[in-house]
Write a structure and sequence with these properties.
Order of helices and strands: EEEHHEEEEEE
CATH topology: Jelly Rolls
Number of helices: 2
Number of domains: 1
Number of strands: 9
Shape: globular
């Protein structure tokens, strides 16, 4: 019989500290939801590209912005800005960075 599950990102199942960013994840019903928090000054191409080794981020993101502002530039030059309450689809082939002097936090939803 199925049962109710409750978890909190205040006590994540997994935490990964990155250069100027942090990923916290919980898994419920077999689905992993991740909160990414990126500090002011964080940029994928500056902080993650050296470790990943690709020209741009090749991860497909479905996201919900909780707080702060996130800017994304696709490899083809198209740009989009996301703020609190925005839901976005960001396909592989992009750079992203925190806008302003406050951290940006978003939820990554698997697809």
């Amino acid at each position: 019989m199925a049962t109710v599950e409750k978890k909190s990102l205040k006590q994540p199942d997994d935490t990964k500290k990155l250069d100027k960013a942090k990923k916290e994840s919980v898994t419920v019903a077999g689905v992993t939801i991740t909160r990414v928090t990126a500090e002011p000054g964080w940029q994928w191409s500056k902080n993650l590209k050296p470790a990943v080794g690709t020209a741009s981020c090749q991860v497909h993101h479905i996201l919900y912005v909780v707080s702060g502002r996130l800017k994304v530039r696709m490899d083809d030059g198209k740009e989009e800005e996301f703020g609190p309450g925005d839901i976005g689809n960001v396909p592989p082939g992009h750079d992203g960075w925190t806008l302003g002097d406050k951290p940006v936090a978003w939820l990554e939803i698997p697809h």
